[in-house]
Design goal:
13 helices; alpha/beta; amino-acid biosynthesis; 3-dehydroquinate synthase activity; Rossmann fold; binds nicotinamide-adenine-dinucleotide; 2 domains; 18% strand; two-stranded antiparallel ribbon; 7-stranded mixed sheet; Dehydroquinate synthase-like, alpha domain; single chain; DHQ_synth_fam; binds ligand LNCXM5UN; EC 4.2.3.4; aromatic amino acid biosynthesis; binds zinc ion
Length: 357
């Protein structure tokens, strides 16, 4: 099974994709460490916690319960877990294991980043979305009322441990949400991955082992390469945000309670694809292909609560905006992108209208 590496100036770690890897979690702990704090929701713990407990056998560990939900991806949740760590005797030798979907990966990573000014974290992703995306790359954080992930830190993990078998218990809506980030990786950097999503939908939807392995392995490879080249999103890493400028605005506009993140990214990619065509960067044919593949993995929750005029001002809150100028990641083909600043507001409005129509 493959292992991929992220190398930055300060860190090097591996993302290991291996069936049963949770049961040997101890192999990935540093030689010297104090208490281990496992952040997990009750549902994930009930389904797969015993593998992690086996993996931690012989270590001094505690579970920190996170109730789950994008609405609770807030600083208050991090503070509550940090308070609990203090109560349980956590110190600078402690370590966090973020065991769950992307929300747990982001919050658990953020907790580790700021607890006593920073302790290590091991990421164990259990949703498709977190295996193909959230657990790798070191972006951690929480939402503000004003926008998605507006507080946080880059905090690279010690290791990422991915067991594709845990995906078999994932509810179908959550599985489909993860597929949109896979399509994103195909559009921005990997035509064969895009063709898998386009031509092998029955295998993908059946969670056929070979299809899952290709989606996870190719996505993790792309993320590791991009993050190694540009850890702090000064340039290349922006491409991983394809579909997110409008997608994040949709999440915030509906108070993080209507769309799953992956669903918002799916709709955001449709908007970004219309925009790419309107801006003259993408052919009609490629634009139609991308929109068809995204729609094939629907349905999406109703877009009825969304209004273009309410989404437009939210775009400026995107972290890629600089002094009021929004930077859009546009597709220029299947597997290639360009970051473009200063597109006319009318063009952006039209792309969003076409998406909501
Ligand atoms: N840091 C990054 O690079 C990055 C990348 C992509 C997304 N994200 C973030 O990830 C979050 C979305 O993550 P998500 O889609 O994984 O949602 P999530 O974390 O809410 O998980 C989805 C649901 O599935 C449950 N679940 C998890 N694993 C399961 C399993 N194996 N079986 C059954 N149920 C399981 C969870 O408890 C939860 O209810 C968003 O907040 C997004 O901003 C971060
Ligand atoms: O890793 C990245 O870089 C990404 O942009 C991946 C995204 O899929 C992810 O949703 C990320 O959390 C978005 O980051 P943000 O900086 O736009 O909040
Ligand atoms: Zn995302």
């Amino acid at each position: 099974m493959p292992a991929f590496a992220v190398t930055t100036t300060a860190h090097r770690y591996e993302a290991t994709v291996e069936r049963g890897v949770l049961r040997r979690l101890r192999d990935f702990l540093p030689a010297k460490h104090g208490k281990v704090f496992v952040v997990a929701t009750d549902d994930v713990w009930a389904l797969h916690g015993s593998a992690v407990a086996t993996g931690l056998d012989g270590t001094d560990w505690h579970r920190l319960v996170f109730p789950g939900g994008e609405e609770r991806k807030r600083l208050a949740s991090v503070e509550a877990m940090a308070d609990r760590m203090v109560e349980l005797g956590g110190d600078r030798s402690s370590l966090v294991v973020a065991f769950g979907g992307g929300i747990v990966n982001d919050l658990g990573g953020f907790l580790a980043a700021i607890y006593m000014r920073g302790i290590p974290v091991i990421q164990i992703p259990t949703t498709l979305l977190s295996q193909v995306d959230a657990a790798v790359g070191g972006k951690t954080g929480a939402n503000l009322v004003g926008g998605k992930n507006l507080i946080g830190s880059f905090h690279q993990p010690l290791a990422v441990l991915t067991d594709p078998d845990v995906l078999m218990t994932l509810p179908e809506r959550e599985y489909r949400a993860g597929l949109f980030e896979v399509i994103k990786h195909g559009v921005i950097a990997c035509e064969p991955l895009f063709r898998l999503m386009q031509n092998e939908q029955p295998r993908v939807m059946a969670r056929e082992a070979g299809a899952v392995e290709q989606m996870v392995a190719e996505s993790v490879r792309i993320k590791c390469e991009v993050v190694t080249a540009d850890e702090k999103e000064m340039g290349l890493r922006k491409i991983l945000n394809f579909g997110h400028t409008v997608g994040h605005a949709m999440e915030a506009e509906t108070k993080y309670a209507h769309f799953l993140h992956g669903e918002a990214v799916g709709l955001g990619m449709i908007a970004a694809t219309h925009l790419s065509r309107l801006a003259g960067r993408l052919s009609e044919a490629h634009s139609q292909e991308i929109i068809d593949v995204v729609n094939a993995y629907g349905p999406f929750p109703s877009t009825e609560p969304l209004r273009t005029e309410n989404l437009m001002p939210r775009l400026v809150k995107d972290k890629k905006a600089i002094q009021g100028t929004v930077h859009f990641v546009l597709a220029t083909g299947i597997g290639s992108t360009e970051v473009v600043a200063g597109l006319p507001a009318e063009m952006v409005r039209e792309a969003i209208e076409l998406t909501l129509a």
